[in-house]
Specification:
29% helix, 169 residues, globular, two-stranded antiparallel sheet
């Protein structure tokens, strides 16, 4: 289980030339490629399966620009799920005004296959910590309460940079 502290996130649509200039500035100001990027590559694929209610509550909360909202998603850092996929992150991402936080549960390939196949998971038998069980219970609560189902699959390529000096950037 991983709980990310609240952070600030801003997203912009920019053309490829501007993106390259921004990337060069990031490097000039001391940012380096995220260590998660494989040697010899500049990026990695992010694939996310978003869960929402039949009335698309999360979607309309975002479209409406509501300051407090959440989303439930399963995420992996590969383009396709295979038997070789090591893990899938099951996440609750929350936004409060401009601050963003995540509660994440790291599932094994087997656990994800069982969950996505409609089977139940017993956190005690899985050996999960109290914190992992809390995230799992929160995901189950939102899923049951709001009738959430997988609704949207999003895949994109990320070119990530991190700060050498500040761990939060």
């Amino acid at each position: 289980m991983e709980q990310k502290p609240f952070r600030f996130e801003f997203k912009y649509v920019i053309d490829p030339l501007t993106a390259r200039l921004v990337e060069l500035d990031l490097q000039r100001f001391g940012m380096e490629k995220d260590p998660e990027v494989r040697v010899g590559q500049d990026d990695y694929v992010v694939s996310s399966l978003y869960f929402d209610s039949l009335m698309l509550g999360d979607y309309y909360d975002k479209a409406g620009g509501f300051p407090h909202r959440k989303k439930i998603r399963a995420r992996m850092y590969h383009s396709v799920f295979t038997d070789a996929t090591k893990h899938v992150w099951f996440e609750i991402k929350e936004k409060h005004d401009m601050a963003i936080g995540k509660k994440r549960l790291k599932l094994t390939n087997d656990q994800w296959q069982r969950i996505s196949g409609g089977n139940t998971i017993d956190p005690v038998k899985e050996g999960w910590s109290d914190a992992e069980r809390r995230v799992w219970n929160d995901i189950r609560w939102y899923t049951a309460l709001e009738g959430r189902k997988p609704m949207v699959f999003v895949r994109y390529v990320r070119r990530p940079y991190v700060s050498r000096f500040l761990s939060d950037i």
